[in-house]
Amino acid sequence: MATAEHPVRSDFARHLRDRTRGEHARAEAEPFVRALLSGQLDVDAYAMLLGQYYFAYEVLEAAADAMRCDLVAGPFVSDRLRRLPALEADLHHYLGPDWYEVIRPSAETEDYRSRLREVCFDWPGGFVAHHYTRYLADLSGGQAIRAAMTARCDGAGPSDDGGGLAFLTFPEIPHRPRFRTAYRTLLDTAGWDAAEQERIVTEVKLAFRLNIRVLAELGRRLAPPIPRQRRG
């Protein structure tokens, strides 16, 4: 019989990663993401992204507070992951002290927030699905965005002391690979049966789709690039 000291271990983390590989690839292929990673977007576009993320994390981290004492979801909650204070600092950096008066959630972000409210406050597996989708992305792929923003040399990007990059900086997690390994161990030892694991996979896929819709809407806001004139 499984106990807290000797939980039954599954291979759910690998299964979850494999089953959602396509969604992950589609998120990375979004034009907004590709442009951001290649250094084609200015800091205003990055601030637009941060603004939408602020509204999503506002709900997700309220759910984390509600789930903190849950036997299943509670172990996933870590204050080292909290992003709201970092988002506030970055938005202040890019948009000024009245940043909250400037940002507005898009319809796509509101749909995302609605789903977070629907499943993250009373379904542990649903909370973990959305927690996994966002925070592991920040710890992994988000670092490539950080590198792209750091490389900007137009004078309007992050400051020399790291101002404007707080969202993608995790000073309390100095060894990110080790943290991700521990997180995957939590997934493997959560004790979900096959049916619940399938529900969580389905919810992670939905979380990716909701995030992709947010990114697609941001891409539609950007002016199309001006084609270069051919030299005669």
Automatic annotation (TrEMBL):
Keyword rRNA-binding: no
Sorted UniProt keywords: Heme, Iron, Metal-binding
Keyword Transmembrane attributed: no
PANTHER family per the UniProt record, alphabetical: HEME OXYGENASE
Protein name: Heme oxygenase (Biliverdin-producing)
Native organism: Saccharopolyspora rosea
